[in-house]
């Protein structure tokens, strides 16, 4: 296989490699008559990403008739090659030495040629013969909306849960009823169907999947400035995230989702939840127990639709730690606002518009907790009937005027910068070998 | 250690702005530099080893730093770069590079002028730093000097029939070196009148072989004068010692011959257009 990319497409290709590098350590390169694809698996094999480049993407693409080359190379080696593509004018890729090495030649400005030969690890490929069903739930939207959603959560967050309903969708970083420790802070945001380009929920469902690979794919979607499509069925079935660019690039990320157990565990979990939260008076951040991710080892060579996780988690809906307050004069299509996660619990989020939905942190005083919907099947957390107003909705009244700024003589700090550093440098021994006075205390 | 009073109070410096004739008689070496920036950059580029040898002659100042028997770095500042420069015969002393680097950096980047005084054998080197904008602040440093052995005299034979000389633009070469894999063990540098003209290969990275090639017609090459093909390997850690000098250089001269000894001149343009340059000698690894 031999192919050539021009400068602009090399940058796109580099972005693809950078995005895939966030998954795992091996890159599978597969080339056939119609194009080339890059695939990778994450370490737990619970997600596979495939970025396919049609031969029209390349300036020149040649394979032997009926030839299908596939190999596995080290991801880091590939990433090093494509790390800086600013000065690249042309990229040539080919297999040399009888498919034993993968050669990448970059022709750069100033008549510079950079050549890398990466040894092929293995002749392996991934088979993931899975396609989304025709009648499954579909949500398509610009990369911007999904990036906003993912930015709403802590970068360290591992999983998110999507609760998809007819007209709206809840995205949260926890599954209700799950056991978490005291430091964990739960956040949730609700979006209306009209925020997305296409919103088609055949069957209301709730799925939980890993955020890391999703973010990696979003990074590439942003580079391409394309929209992203999610297709999923019920919890336990894989979710398919796809990008399509001008018929030249097709990306597909297949991720497994947590399966939901029957509600038999539901009551037990809920009670313990109540006990945990009733002891605390203030809302505290809670660290997520990341026990879930370890059990997700699956082989994609199995042609199964159902991906089951051993972790027992349930979807509960009536331990409403979050309360929603809608202003009385809301319009029918009010904006959904994502409240920033790491908030000072004693302050409130500022209302961005009059018609915003405010996200109040869990108020753990028993008297204010309102269990809105004891029905187990409804996933919506609806608003509190009594306005919970002990926390004011805007920060204006709490604003304290700023203290007058000190006039800075910028030079002073730089001139005396040495005074702010430790005086004693242990590496240089004292000239006399005798200490007459010890260092004074740092106060 | 000498002075607890400043030189000014002692009457050694009559006028802070200018050195008078009388002061020279006490000192073997006196110099004044109006902008320390280039000098400071040069000292920092040499600060990979602690022991530096200062040699002052009528031509100028030379600072030498060596690492083992493999690498030697020299900083050359000609007498014309200094606002004032007086030396009695040849003056040689050793100094801790880290200390002088810290002293020159006392004012953290603010433009300063520098005066240097050296009384003679055993005396410390006195530096007086004076920020150009602030009239009422100055810093005085007194650094102990040591005796130092001779340094190795490296030399590339100008007449050798395998002498290769290439002048490259500083920023472009810095770019190339920066992109090389830092995990490599060795670098092989090949210069040749035939293709490939200028090639740097990284060796020792697992599963990857990389090289960068620049054609002699490239606009980053200002001069290409190769008499024969030379190729030698150098340790990556030693090559990386040049990176501070490379980052500050406006142009770089690379010279080598069949012995493999690599000489690199990093020209640093100072404000007054007088040249300060750092010269590195790097020994090749023996071919097995």
UniProtKB/TrEMBL annotation, chain A:
<keyword id="KW-0540">Nuclease</keyword>
<dbReference type="GO" id="GO:0030896">
    <property type="term" value="C:checkpoint clamp complex"/>
</dbReference>
<keyword id="KW-0597">Phosphoprotein</keyword>
<dbReference type="GO" id="GO:0004527">
    <property type="term" value="F:exonuclease activity"/>
</dbReference>
<dbReference type="GO" id="GO:0000076">
    <property type="term" value="P:DNA replication checkpoint signaling"/>
</dbReference>
<keyword id="KW-0539">Nucleus</keyword>
<protein>
    <recommendedName>
        <fullName>Cell cycle checkpoint control protein RAD9A</fullName>
    </recommendedName>
</protein>
<dbReference type="InterPro" id="IPR046938">
    <property type="entry name" value="DNA_clamp_sf"/>
</dbReference>
<comment type="similarity">
    <text>Belongs to the rad9 family.</text>
</comment>
<keyword id="KW-0269">Exonuclease</keyword>
<dbReference type="GO" id="GO:0071479">
    <property type="term" value="P:cellular response to ionizing radiation"/>
</dbReference>
<keyword id="KW-0227">DNA damage</keyword>
<dbReference type="GO" id="GO:0006281">
    <property type="term" value="P:DNA repair"/>
</dbReference>
<dbReference type="GO" id="GO:0031573">
    <property type="term" value="P:mitotic intra-S DNA damage checkpoint signaling"/>
</dbReference>
<dbReference type="InterPro" id="IPR007268">
    <property type="entry name" value="Rad9/Ddc1"/>
</dbReference>
<dbReference type="Pfam" id="PF04139">
    <property type="entry name" value="Rad9"/>
</dbReference>
<keyword id="KW-0378">Hydrolase</keyword>
<comment type="function">
    <text>Component of the 9-1-1 cell-cycle checkpoint response complex that plays a major role in DNA repair. The 9-1-1 complex is recruited to DNA lesion upon damage by the RAD17-replication factor C (RFC) clamp loader complex. Acts then as a sliding clamp platform on DNA for several proteins involved in long-patch base excision repair (LP-BER).</text>
</comment>
TrEMBL record, chain B:
<dbReference type="InterPro" id="IPR046938">
    <property type="entry name" value="DNA_clamp_sf"/>
</dbReference>
<dbReference type="GO" id="GO:0000077">
    <property type="term" value="P:DNA damage checkpoint signaling"/>
</dbReference>
<keyword id="KW-0227">DNA damage</keyword>
<comment type="similarity">
    <text>Belongs to the rad1 family.</text>
</comment>
<protein>
    <submittedName>
        <fullName>Cell cycle checkpoint protein RAD1</fullName>
    </submittedName>
</protein>
<dbReference type="Pfam" id="PF02144">
    <property type="entry name" value="Rad1"/>
</dbReference>
<dbReference type="InterPro" id="IPR003011">
    <property type="entry name" value="Cell_cycle_checkpoint_Rad1"/>
</dbReference>
<dbReference type="InterPro" id="IPR003021">
    <property type="entry name" value="Rad1_Rec1_Rad17"/>
</dbReference>
<keyword id="KW-0234">DNA repair</keyword>
<keyword id="KW-0539">Nucleus</keyword>
<dbReference type="GO" id="GO:0030896">
    <property type="term" value="C:checkpoint clamp complex"/>
</dbReference>
<dbReference type="GO" id="GO:0006281">
    <property type="term" value="P:DNA repair"/>
</dbReference>
